[in-house]
Specification:
This protein is α/β, with parallel strands linked by helices and 323 residues long. It is built from ten helices and 15 strands. It has two domains: 169 residues, 2-keto-3-deoxy-galactonokinase, substrate binding domain (Nucleotidyltransferase, domain 5), CATH 3.30.420.300; 117 residues, 2-keto-3-deoxy-galactonokinase, C-terminal domain (Nucleotidyltransferase, domain 5). Helix 4 packs across helix 10 and helix 8 crosses helix 9.
């Protein structure tokens, strides 16, 4: 019976919805499914319903649609298979809000708050929803699962950077996450490029930024002076020096990534960059500009994607729930 040998791993973030059909013993991913049904979109659709159904039931219906598509894609009957879900699915705008677990967190033997939803006549799959992490001043949902799935390849002591919309800097000491900080680098870049007075100086630029001379100039400028003043330099480079939109965008990106990294203190720990290859290239370039002696290890997005179902399998194995 496939329900005894397999599980469904659900990585449900703000923008994306991913399902993995996983063989529990080997951790082999048998099939995958990705849809643009992120938590933000799903929550907005739920809010538009009149009258609004129960929030948990609505999200379970979306999950059921995904499982049905995964079943069709795999050619297997997935009724009764347990689903382990993490990311923003456990937030107030997700399926069911779960409190954050407080640090520290041992990445080899983690204890994260979670809730089981039993199968029912309307939804045949039991669901385990896993919560996120918090410090006294910061929170995360999703990145901690990626770390847990990479526990066997990460150094025992490491300073991990996960670039993105809300970049995370995570400190691991003796195999334990004891601190992390969030930087709104990607979100501020989008706001400045698309909604500020600077947008007319970058409107013709391509969506992607590449590390070039202007990017490095932005990184260098971020190391001194005031960011709010440096922002306006993007405008004056356009008006006074007729600099191109691609160059202005690269300069802005360098400013923001340089500002994020200027306070970097690894305390001698190995530095690990994790994520999308294009972002890794930018961050590696910025780090080289700031300190060319840093030794940087990289973990690609492809490896991180496989880490999520691996972490889910380990977490469910630690519970007392028979699956």
């Amino acid at each position: 019976m496939i329900a005894a040998t397999h599980m469904i791993s659900c990585d449900w973030g703000t923008s994306n919805f991913r399902l993995y059909l996983v063989e529990k013993a080997s951790l082999c991913i048998r099939e995958t499914l990705e849809r643009p049904w992120g938590i933000a979109t799903t929550y907005a659709m739920w809010k538009e319903e009149k009258p609004a159904p129960d929030q948990t039931d609505y999200f379970r219906a979306v999950l059921a649609k995904g499982i049905a598509a995964l079943a069709q894609k795999s050619g297997l009957d997935l009724d009764g298979i347990i689903v382990v879900a993490s990311g923003m699915v456990s937030s107030s705008i997700g399926m069911l809000e779960i409190p954050y677990t407080e640090l520290p967190l041992a990445i080899h033997t983690p204890k994260l708050d979670h809730i089981f939803l039993e199968a029912s006549n309307s939804f045949s799959n039991p669901v385990c929803i896993v919560g996120g992490l918090k410090t006294e001043t910061d929170v995360m949902r999703g990145e901690e699962i990626q770390l847990l799935g990479l526990a066997d390849v990460l150094p025992k002591n490491a300073y991990c950077i996960l670039p993105g919309t809300h970049s995370k800097h995570i400190t691991i000491e003796n195999g334990t996450v004891n601190q992390f900080k969030t930087y709104m680098t990607g979100e501020v870049f989008g706001l400045m490029k698309n909604q500020s007075v600077l947008k007319s100086s970058m409107c013709n630029a391509s969506p992607s930024v590449v590390p070039n001379t202007n990017f490095s100039k932005g990184v260098e400028k971020a190391l001194t002076g005031n960011l709010l003043h440096h922002f306006f330099r993007v405008r004056t480079l356009d008006l006074l020096q007729n600099q191109g939109h691609e160059e202005n965008q690269a300069y802005l990106s360098g400013l923001l990534i340089g500002t994020e990294l200027r306070s970097l203190h690894t305390n001698g720990q190995p530095l690990v960059l994790m994520g999308d290859s294009k972002l890794l290239e930018l961050y590696k370039s910025a780090l080289d500009t700031i300190d060319s002696t840093l030794m940087v290890q990289t973990v690609t997005a492809k490896v991180m994607d496989k880490a999520v179902p691996k972490a889910h399998a380990a977490l469910i194995h630690q519970t007392n729930k028979k699956i």
